[in-house]
Amino acid sequence: MSDKNLALNIPNDLSAFWMPFTANRAFKKAPRLIAGAKDMHYITTDGRKVLDGAAGMWCCNAGHGRTEIAAAITRQADALDFAPPFQFGIPQAFELANRVSELAPEGLDHVFFCNSGSEAADTALKLALAYHRIAGQGSRIRLIGRERAYHGVGFGGTAVGGIVSNRKMFGSLLTGVDHLQSTYNREKQAFSKGEPQWGAELADELERLVALHGAETIAAVIVEPMAGSTGVLPAPKGYLKRLREITQKHGILLIFDEVITGFGRLGHAFAAERYGVLPDMITFAKGVTNGAAPMGGLLVHKAIHDAFMTGPANAVEIFHGYTYSAHPLACAAGLATLDIYRAEELFERARNLEPKFADAVMSLREEPNVVDIRTVGITAGIELAPNENGPGDRGFTALRAGFHDYDLMMRIAGDTLALTPPLIISEDQIGELVDKTAKVIRAVA
Ligand code: PMP
């Protein structure tokens, strides 16, 4: 990063930009502004070096400022800035689809590109509905998500999502949606490493929904193998397998939302591999470009893809897509990113580092107000008891203290601190991350 990057003008008036998912009024009184980033650190506009405990937002798995990715984007922008993705194509899109599907479990051979995790979730839900229709089962229109799930902010993803605050401002969303209960139960699985031992039986609730509505009305079930945005809730041992058995038995599609678990976070290219479960579709985003360009996508099983490929040869097979599907700059970033993951064996690195990471984070269990710690892959949720101002206030205070006072960036979900650093983190840096987190926890006690 050059000094030039830091020579930014900060506008006196911050009011025009309505920031997403942000306490705008609080932020604008004490802004947290970022000017640059390299490897494991951000540089703030006042020149401080802040440890990135969040891989940006679960996306910069290879760390920041990767020159190979920047160079690939620059080269691509020079050669071809844009080409229409409908009825035309660019070679890089086909290459990236091949590369992503090579990383995916056998059978997930096709990739539909979009620009975000939200678009990937909505694409998956729409494809599920369309698939059943062309398969002569148009009565399958119900969609099943889960409480405490996050599938982005499109209408579909919000509807199958299970975060009350994300839903309640927006009316009825989609009809015909049900939710399985969240697998999280602190009494039965507190301080769990990896897959909690309790909770697989909660998948059987799907049988209840099938009995209630009839299998012939249900199109798909969508779940995150590890719910990240609601506080790091890994799937219990056996839970995803059970969901697969029940969906298969009833002809219901199973969609894994791997927007944060994809590309190494749980020590594998996709969590489906870790759990040994083959879903019908996998959504991805974030890590596919290391966060350097917006991109999302959907891996689709060949059985579903092939069902669409049977009509007249000149007919469009799916009436869905985005102007920026497989955007040239995103494809270039994606290919350069996958090269880095492969060359540096980052997924394997994450797998090997997981026990050390888990042990280091578990050392926080005696810190004040820590009521639970959950770890899986290179991810940890440290749940604090709420303070007297109500749920979420202690977490928010910790976020601010971390950034302003301890040079640490982390994510929060209510009062849970989420540590999800880049997969390049060294063992020393894990120590530093945990030390800083301990200081923050004490500061907000
Ligand atoms: N699904 C999951 C599991 C996510 O964690 C996220 C974002 N954190 C999304 C979907 C939405 O992705 P985006 O913000 O790129 O739309």
From TrEMBL:
Entry annotated with the keyword Oxidoreductase: no
Gene Ontology molecular function terms on file: pyridoxal phosphate binding; transaminase activity
Pfam families xrefs: Aminotran_3
Enzyme Commission code: 2.6.1.-
Top-rank lineage group of the source organism: Bacteria
Keywords: Aminotransferase, Pyridoxal phosphate, Transferase
CDD domains: OAT_like
Membrane-spanning residues: none
Named cofactor requirement(s): pyridoxal 5'-phosphate
Xref: PANTHER family: AMINOTRANSFERASE, AMINOTRANSFERASE CLASS-III
Family: Belongs to the class-III pyridoxal-phosphate-dependent aminotransferase family.
Protein's name in the database: Aminotransferase
Species: Nitrobacter winogradskyi (strain ATCC 25391 / DSM 10237 / CIP 104748 / NCIMB 11846 / Nb-255)
Phylogenetic classification of the source organism: Bacteria, Pseudomonadati, Pseudomonadota, Alphaproteobacteria, Hyphomicrobiales
